[in-house]
Specification:
68% of the residues lie in helices and 0% in strands. The protein is mainly alpha-helical and 139 residues long. Helix 6 packs antiparallel against helix 7 and helix 6 packs antiparallel against helix 8.
Amino acid sequence: MQIKETKAKLEFERIVSRIKFHTFSDFGIEKCDALEFYTDIEKLDTELNKVVEMKEILNLKGGLPLYGLTNIRTSINKMKIEGYFISSNEFLFILEFLRISRNIYKLIKDANQEENNFNLIYSLTKNLFYDKVLEHNIE
C-alpha cells in the first residue's frame, strides 16, 4: 500500500485538522502543518510516548501556563537590524514570552522530578531559553 493511501485510510489530514483546532498560536498551526507521517515504528513509538507523557503532565499539573503567549518572531527579527528599535509593547510581549518559557521549564522539570517518568518531554523543554536578568531589565 502506498503512503498516500495509508494516510488517507488513517485519516491523517483529518486528525491534523482536529489537532490544529486545539493549538494556542499560529506557530502551533505551522507545526501541525509540518507534522511528519511516520512510517518507522521506532520513531512512531517515541512520538506516541511523548504524547502519553504530555497527557500525564497535563493531568498532573492541570495545564500549561500559556496565557499571554504571543508570536515574537517579528520583534526578534527587527532587533537583529542595526539601528532598528522595537516598541515598548513589543518589549512587553518578549518579557511575557520569557516568563512563559521559564514557567513551562519549571513546571516540566518539577513534574519530572516528582514522577521521574517524563524524560522525553523534559528533554524537549530543558533547552527552553529564559533569563531572569533579561526579564528584570525589560521590566
